[in-house]
Amino acid sequence: MKYIEDEIPFELPEGWAWARLGNITDITTGRLDANAQVEDGVYPFFTCGEEVLQTDTFAFDCDAVLLGGNNAVGDFKMHRFSGKFNAYQRVYVITAYALLDTDYIYNHIQYYLPMLKEMSIGSQTRYLKLGMVTELLISIPPLNTQKFLSNKIKELLNYCDEIEANKSSLNDLLINTKSKILDLAIRGQLVPQDPNDEPASVLLERIRAEKEELIKQGKLKRDKKESVIFKGEDNSYYLKPENWWSRWKTGLSRNSLTVGVCAALGNYVTTVTVQMLIPLISLILRGYWILRISKKIPVSFYKKYAKMNAMQEAQSIVFTKVRCCTANFALI
What we know:
By secondary structure, the protein is of the alpha+beta class. It contains 11 helices and 17 strands. The strands form 5 sheets. It has a 6-stranded mixed β-sheet.
């Protein structure tokens, strides 16, 4: 009696049993050389490769598992076939005895392929000895369980094949999913909103106050292009210069009826009446004022009449889309 406890890979459920593959199947090899292939042959011809060839003769007529016995790197190929076929001399033809499900045996041997790769011998070409195959330990469940497992394995492996076939689509899906996760995160949709949390606007005010302090200390230069994003009364977002009010005051006179606005906004000039000053200031700061103005005059008109103070006499405000003054707001 031989002690084989150390060979048993895992414990079996109640009612299952271990058996050597050579004791529950008939294992033989093919007889043909590789050059026995016939183009457009009548019968399948199994070699150690993945592709199934053809030949004009058959040596087997059975339900069998076919295991390639050699491979350059030890990736041994398997096939499952029922009917008339022929096989290369290094292919193991395995037929199960009665009361065994051949599909179950096929799947069980597939499970051992990584181990067979490690067991294989040879330098330039790896190959399997017959004993390596016959000594494989097979866990045997009741016949009904064998059939059930064969069907379940086939179903699950089909899912794997579908995933493999749609790998590129799956990869695109993964990329889009990652992008969507980031999108939801930055939209604030991956975290519950707590009304007790400090608003981000307060945080930004703190940052601005800290920057002002650094500017006063000479540790930081003021960015003349710095701006603030805010939400207006119409629930729309607007952008205004950070220091817009100080620049506005330097160009504004209490006794002025007209103000020239040179904010680099385009290549034409639009004129409106002075009565629209207050609402237009609001629109300017929000960045949408140009959409509310319909009357346009060419830049040449502005250049010609601004020097003559004709615009002041007409009590109008000049809005330009070109920077024609040294400051954002200039008195004319």
